[in-house]
Every structure is written in C-alpha cells, then in structure tokens.
Write a structure and sequence with these properties.
The structure holds 2 protein chains of 2 kinds.
Chain A (H helix, E strand, L loop, with lengths): L4 E7 L2 E7 L5 H8 L18 E4 L2 E4 L12 E3 L12 H8 L9 H14 L5 H7 L11 H14 L9 H5 L3
Chain B lengths: L6 E3 L4 H11 L3 E4 L5 H6 L7 E4 L9 E4 L2 E5 L4 H5 L2 H6 L1 H8 L4 H6 L2 H6 L7 H8 L2 E6 L2 E6 L4 E3 L2 E2 L6 E8 L6 E7 L9 E10 L2 E10 L6 E2 L1 H5 L8 H13 L11 H22 L3
Parallel strand pairs in B: 1-3, 2-3
Antiparallel strand pairs in B: 4-5, 5-10, 6-7, 6-10, 8-9, 11-12, 12-13, 13-14
Chain lengths: ~170, ~290
C-alpha cells in the first residue's frame, strides 16, 4: 500500500487537511472523510454528473479526480451555496420551478449551473441544454431544470422573478 | 471502484516529468486530464505503479501564434480551446471539434495532448490533426523531436512516442486564407465516442478544388487519413458527383469494429454520410 499523503485545500471557505492514499478519489474524501455528502455517487464512471463540484473555477466530476490532485485548491459544493439562512438564487429557482423530483442529481445540477452562469450570465435555452449536458436527471425530463436555471439567471442579473408554476405564483413564490 | 495503489508524482517542469518517466519506465503512466486513464485504473484495466501528473507544469499550457503555426501546449483543455478567440479566428475547425467532445465537465479536464497521445481511434483530435497536417513536439531525455500527425498514430493505443518521451506541444499550420473546414460527428448521445466522424479541410481556386484533406474517426485501428478520397477532389468542381465519389473512396478504407454503436456495414455507411456532410459544410465555408 502506498504511503498516505497530507493534502490541504479549502472547501466551502474552510481550510481542511486530509490524510489520503494517492488512489483515493475526491468524491470519497468529500463524503467519507469530510462528511460533505451533497455531491452524490451516481454512476462512478464520469457520465452522470451527480458528483460535480466546483474546483478552482471549473466544474469537475469528483469521481474522476484524485484527492492528491487538489493540493491548495478551492472547492465549492452545494453545502456552500446558502448564505445566512438565505437560499442561493439557483436553490430558490429549483424549488420555485420544480426543477427536481427525487433530488439525487440536484446538488450536481446546481453546482454545474453555478459555473455556467459565472461564464455566461444570460444563456439561451439552447446554451443551457448544451452546457448542462454533463448532468443527467432521470426524473424531470429537463424542462423544469432549464426553467429553474433561467429563473436563477434572471434573479442573479437583478431582474424580477416569478415561478412559472401557477400555484407557486399564486402563493407568491 | 477504486484503483490499485500507486505512488503519485506532480513534477513542476517538463524536465522533471521526463526524469520521472526515465526513472520508473514501464511502471509509470502520465496523467493528463485523467478522463481515459482514471476510469481504466478504476476498472483495473490499468494499474501503473507510478502516476506522473502533468497538471502542475505551466510550460505545457498556452495557445500562441508563431510563424504561421498555432502552437498549443499539450495540457490545454478542451474548454480552453472552445473559449479561445485566437483559435476561433485561426483554426475554427479545432473549436468545432472540441465542442463535440464528451460533456462540459470532461472538457474542463480533458486535454488536447491527452486525447492525441492516448492513441484511441475513438478520440476526436487525431483525425482532425491528420486533416490539418499538424506536427507534434515530443520531448525526451535527449531533447525534442517533431513528428507529423501522419506518422504518429501506429495502431490502437500505439503511437510514435518512445518510452521516456512526453507529447509537449501541438503545432498546427494555419490553413490558407479562404479555406473551409468541418468536423462532422455522428454520436448516439452526449458523451459518447463517434459512431463515425469525418474531418475535412478544403480550399478552392475559382470553382475548382485546389487543396483537400479528409480524415476519419473510429472506423479503423487508428484515425485514418483518406488520401485517395481527398485526391479525387483536386482540380474538380466539388459537385454532388465529386462528393459521392470522395465518400465512396473514404468508405473503401474503413475497417471498423462492430460494437454497440453498430455493425461494420452501418459504420461504413455512416462514414460516407459524415464525409458528404463535412464536405458540403466545408464548401459553404470556403471564401474565394
């Protein structure tokens, strides 16, 4: 067995040190050592995007990264989105537009959508579908995910937003 | 799925990577974006004793224009290619290709050098490199050498890289002004390898074809340069008959392996379709 290495990085703003074998995958360190269980293991083959985290300003699938590669990195997961009890516009959008059913893909979806909106604050529907294509949802058929991201994009641009769902709109969400 | 144990090395220079390769030999693997190698290690199809990570080497990054060539560091990622204004202006074919590779997360990690050096006939850059007449800079303990794409791909997972060498830079001659190009790829779904794909670069002199190159993805043990198909277009007006003939000649060199994407006949037929599609689109992009 290869010797363990100490790796230091920041996760959701907090500095952490972990002791890992070189072969340990980032998703396992996050979930098992750091109890950051928002990123999920869906396929474990870098296809589904459920394990997506934001690493040094890009979206990566944490099942296909080694923890030892993350020395001095800055990592953001779904746990880092809500601030002071206030949901992030993407979290609010996914709720308001019913962008999830079972919710398994949602942390990865939101984390990926966050990076896309940093790069392109006003994506078209086609651009959203293209740049979100690394995340698979088996429940929603994607329509409401697209709406949720459009809702969040509008809110992040400072525009007025309202759910397209009639009952949610009536309830003032 | 967890890989076999290995020692991890993250050199900060090309010389450091070459020295580690020399030290550990066959027991070492180079890690680029990791989206081919790590899945193979997780499945235990690969089990190197030493992993040499190239991600911490600044000299392997960068995109520059020099002497009529686009010079791209081997560790440049697919998304860096997609976002590069310089590449979009000089070799838009490369942006079109990168946009069709896998999915956004994989493109943030996956590199042009890894895609080429892996020697997988299903990867997309090899055929595009053949069509563009690219040169690869290989760096070893004895220094650098330059190998044309046409001499690099030897067999499935086998390339002209010698033990101890690292692919460090890709040099692409900028196509002559007015050239048109296209990468047409048939895939079943996002993230899949090509069922068949064709890269085309053409240039016109008046109505006649003055230069042409055609290369094919995933229909042989390596990417294939369809030289006869390209030669058949020279001096001719690229009309329906000329396009059909070029597609027929390209189909004639295909040796696809049957798999879940289709049987041999289907893949050969789709190669013909991709050649026709790429030629028509490239023709529309030519400027006199």
């Amino acid at each position: 067995m290869a010797k363990k290495t100490q790796v230091s990085f920041r996760i959701n703003g907090s500095a952490v040190d972990v002791l890992v074998e070189p072969r340990e995958l980032l998703i396992h360190t996050l979930r098992e050592k750091l109890a950051v269980t928002g990123p999920h293991i869906g396929c474990d083959t870098s296809h589904c995007g459920a394990c997506t985290v934001d690493l040094d300003g890009v979206s990566v699938k944490s099942c296909t990264m080694l923890t030892v590669q993350c020395e001095a990195s800055e990592i953001l997961t779904i746990e880092g989105f809500a601030k002071g009890g206030q949901l992030h516009p993407l979290q609010e959008g996914f709720a308001a537009e019913h962008g999830l059913q079972c919710g398994f893909c949602t942390p990865g979806m939101i984390t990926r959508a966050y990076r896309m909106l940093q790069e392109n604050p006003s994506p078209t529907e086609e651009e959203i579908r293209y740049w979100m294509s690394g995340n698979i949802c088996r429940c929603t058929g994607y329509q409401n995910i697209v709406k949720a991201i459009q809702y969040a994009a509008a809110k992040m641009r400072g525009e007025e937003v309202q759910s397209s769902h009639p009952l949610m709109a009536e309830a003032g969400v | 799925m967890i890989p076999r144990p290995f020692d991890y090395h993250a050199p900060s220079s090309i010389a450091g990577a070459v020295a580690l390769l020399g030290q550990y030999g066959d027991d070492a693997k180079l890690l680029a974006g990791g989206h081919s190698l790590l899945p193979m290690m997780k499945l235990r199809f690969a089990g190197p004793g030493h992993l040499i990570d190239l991600n911490k080497i600044p000299d392997l990054k960068g995109i520059a224009l020099a002497g009529g060539e686009l010079r791209i560091g081997a560790m440049t990622t697919e998304n860096e290619i997609i976002f590069s204004k310089l590449i979009a202006e000089q070799v838009p074919l490369l942006v079109e290709t990168a946009r069709q590779i896998s999915d956004p997360q994989v493109r943030y990690r996956g590199t042009i050098g890894g895609d080429i050096a892996h020697g997988d006939p299903g990867n997309d850059h090899p055929a595009v490199m053949l069509a563009l007449g690219a040169l690869f800079v290989l760096t070893g303990a004895g220094g650098q050498r330059t190998v044309p794409a046409a001499e690099f791909f030897l067999d499935t997972y086998a390339t002209a890289l010698e033990p101890g060498e690292v692919l460090t830079e890709i040099r692409i001659p900028v196509p002559a002004p007015g050239s048109g190009s296209c990468y047409a790829k048939l895939k079943r779904k996002t993230g899949d390898f090509a069922t068949a794909a064709a890269a085309v670069v053409i240039r016109l002199d008046g109505a006649a074809c003055a230069a042409a190159s055609i290369a094919l993805t995933n229909v042989g043990p390596t990417a294939l340069l369809a030289s006869d198909a390209a030669a058949s277009l020279l001096g001719k007006r690229i009309d329906d008959a000329a396009i059909a003939e070029a597609a027929r000649l390209a189909m004639a060199i295909c040796q696809p392996a049957a798999d879940l994407r289709g049987d041999e006949d289907y893949k050969i037929a789709m190669t013909g379709q991709m050649v026709e599609r790429a030629l028509r689109i490239a023709l529309g992009r030519c400027r006199a």
